[in-house]
Amino acid sequence: MNKNKWTQCLILYALLLIAFLTACTTPSGSTAKSTAVLEPVYEPDETKPTPASTKESAAHTDANEVEDKTEVDLQGALMLYEREGGLKGIGPSERNWRFYADGRIVGSDGREWQVLPAEIEKLIDDVMTLGFADFEASYIPEDTCCDRITHTLTVQQDGQIYTVSILELADAPAELFQAVDLVNNYLLALPTE
Fold first, then answer.
1. Is 38 helix (H, G, I), strand (E, B) or coil?
2. Helical H runs in 40-107?
3. What are the CA-CA distances from residue 81 to residues 10, 20, 30, 186 (Å)?
């Protein structure tokens, strides 16, 4: 390679490196928008508290409030998996899937699958076995740099609702990443047609 082409390659690599590093900086001033807050796919009722992933959260609410929250958030589903973020401008940045007791799985893109109800029950049991009910409600750091994906998993089991949000590569229990992987791998195994 001649010296002129070598110089052009170095300049190109330097520009790409600057572009990638710039993506991780936070804008300054009053126009800065924090990306640390997850914007839910649904519109929760502002008058009711959002349940955390603690056993006490459902215990401290009236039974009707839990039912209403289940209807609003889960739309009758036993589990809701939401994925938001990634590279902006490449594909949808927000998707969700609802898992129902009758074996239906409904995606936000309109696709639906029908599986055996026992598969949904086993998936939820596997997630709960990892200690899902004991996780904190959020593992979202202040710095959400670098086009990472936020995963939010909401599970209803035994009349209680547990919701946990986690950002990729966040400081969180390994079992929580395993729970997200269980759901992702299950979704990836579904037929694409």
1. coil
2. 55-59, 63-73
3. 43, 29, 33, 12
Please count the helices (runs of H) and the strands (runs of E) in the chain.
Answer: 5, 7
pLDDT digit string, tens, across residues 107-130: 999 999 999 999 999 999 999 999
Cβ contacts of 97 within 8 Å, gap of 6 or more: 80, 81, 105, 106, 107, 108, 183, 187
Q: Which domains does the chain have, with CATH numbers?
A: 49-189 (3.30.1560)
| Residue with more model confidence, 143 or 23 | 143
- For residue 64, the Cα-to-chain-centroid distance in whole angstroms is 26
Is the Cβ–Cβ distance between 87 and 81 less than 8 Å?
no
46 versus 22: the higher-pLDDT residue is 22
Average pLDDT over residues 36-46: 38
Could you tell me the pTM of the whole model?
A: 0.61
DSSP states along 117-173: HHHHHHHHHHHHHTTGGGS-SEE--S--TTTPEEEEEEEEETTEEEEEEEETT-S--
